[in-house]
Amino acid sequence: MKNKSKYLNKTLSALTLGVILLVNCSYALAKEANDPQSAKGQTTQLLKQHVVNLNKSTFEQLVTLKGIGHTKAQAIIVYRQQVGAFKSIDELTKVSGIGDTIVSQNKMRLSI
Question: What whole-number distance in Å separates Cα of residue 92 and Cα of residue 96?
């Protein structure tokens, strides 16, 4: 009788622990889904897929391009201010630090 009682107690303990872990995992997943930082990451990912207009894009939109960081994005904006609007996507290579490779990597996402 004592063996059955021990077995029953261990089984109930294991089941209780399993339920607690399941509830905690569900809670953590729900919290992550509602987390603004997680939503921010999804928004950034969506931005990375959108077309970027070289003549109208903001700094934040420019840095979503592959190979374009803060310095190059700022250089694009300065170029627009000093020279005027881009007339072609290939003109982007005239911006300091941007070559044919970066233009070709982003060509599908760029517009004038």
Answer: 9
Structural domain tally of the chain? Answer: 2
48, with CB counted inside 10 A (0-12, 13-18, 19+), is middle
pLDDT digits 0-9 by tens, 66-92: 999 999 999 999 999 999 999 999 999
Q: How many of the other CB atoms lie within 10 Å of CB of 62?
A: 20
Tokens of 103: 């233009």
Q: What is the pTM of this model?
A: 0.57
For 36-71, give the DSSP string.
HHHHHHHHHHHHHHS-EETTT--HHHHTTSTT--HH
| Residue 29 and residue 42 in one domain | no
Give the structural domain span for 50. Answer: 38-111
